[in-house]
Design goal:
89 residues; mainly alpha; 65% helix
Length: 89
Amino acid sequence: MKEFNEKLKLLRKTEGYTQKEMAKLLEIDPTNYQRYEYGKVSPNYKIVKKLCSAFPEYSQWLMTDNDEYMPQVDPHIKKEAKVEIDKLG
């Protein structure tokens, strides 16, 4: 069973984001995001909610023990999301 931090890293890499981009999307410091991925701390409810809002297709997978569920996302949607992140910075 994958831990939340492992799933978070897999989600990020699958979607083609850097840690810095994910931190920007979640409106947190990049160092804090790194701590989530390394499993040093767990994100609070607010951060998990933002993750699930930003990546609704992954919310079930992130929040359960089911390692087999991994959504396939249209590459066009990924590109649109990346553009939105770029607008933030």
